[in-house]
Amino acid sequence: MLILAIDTALEACAAAVLDTDAGELLAQEQLLMKRGHAEALMPMIARVMQSANLAFTALDRIAVTVGPGSFTGLRVGISAARGLALAAKRPAVGLTTLSAYAATVVGQSKSAPVISAIDARHDHVYFQIVAGDGSQLVRPGVAPIDEAIAASQFGAPHLVGNAASILADRWPKDVPQPVAVDAQPAPDIGWVAWLGAAADPETNPARPFYLRAPDAKPAAQPPLAAHAATS
Q1: Which residues lie across from 12 on neighbouring strands?
Q2: pLDDT-derived band of residue 226, with 50, 70 and 90 as boundaries?
Q3: Which of 56, 80, 98, 224 is within CB 3.0–4.6 Å of 88 for a Cys-Cys bond?
Q4: What's this model's pTM, rounded to 2 decimal places?
Q5: Higher pLDDT, 212 or 57
């Protein structure tokens, strides 16, 4: 199976092509960035596809991170994945950034739970807790940092994600300490591809996975405009 993987959810723009039969990435590229994903993504996809020496119609599916993450970044990646999937007549699958983060460390220590954490700002994090074998312990959610820490009642955890250091800095001294802290700015694009290969397109659609509404709100309607609308 040939998979094109895309990630623009957080502070990176990344793309990769995976050949599951060969068990290897044919091409990959990642650029760390806080903004500018829209301008960087399509040229990057073109480069990895050229490096892999593949036409889009040779792909079996397209995988993309669907959140939580930057609302603007998510729209860029998901729109690209949907458009390419439509043009190539291939399925697009969505993977959460939390599961992609966890995939990099699940199995490293079978006894340690894994907490994936993403900075949600305003002293909150998006988080998910899985057992060392990947089974779910606490489903994805958003909570104040102290509440996210309190939700971990499963022993010394492995922290991963762009908020891993934030949790580690606030970790209480009187409880088992994290066994490892992997503060990654974005998920490993190779693992996004592998998760995409395993995902069922019917149950993992390429649509945004939001755990809360955007911070931005529509501007209030000017009084004159409101008056005109009711006239």
Answers
A1: 32
A2: very low
A3: 56
A4: 0.89
A5: 57
182 beta partners? 160
In the structure encoding, which two tokens stand for residue 211, read together?
A: 């755990």
Work out the number of other CB atoms within 10 angstroms of the CB of residue 222: 9
What does the radius of gyration of the chain's CA atoms come to, in whole angstroms?
A: 19
Give 174-219 as a DSSP string.
TSPPPSEEE--SS--HHHHHHHHHHS-TTTSBSS---SS--S--PP
pLDDT of residue 215: 53
- Pairing of β 158-160 and β 136-144: unpaired
Strands 92-95 and 61-65: parallel
pLDDT in tens, 136-164: 999 999 999 999 999 988 989 999 999 99
- Cα–Cα distances in angstroms (integers) from residue 46 to residues 28, 29, 40, 41, 80, in the given order: 11, 11, 10, 9, 12
**For residue 107, what pLDDT is reported?**
66
Mean pLDDT of 208-225: 60
Report the C-alpha gap between 132 and 199 in whole angstroms: 20
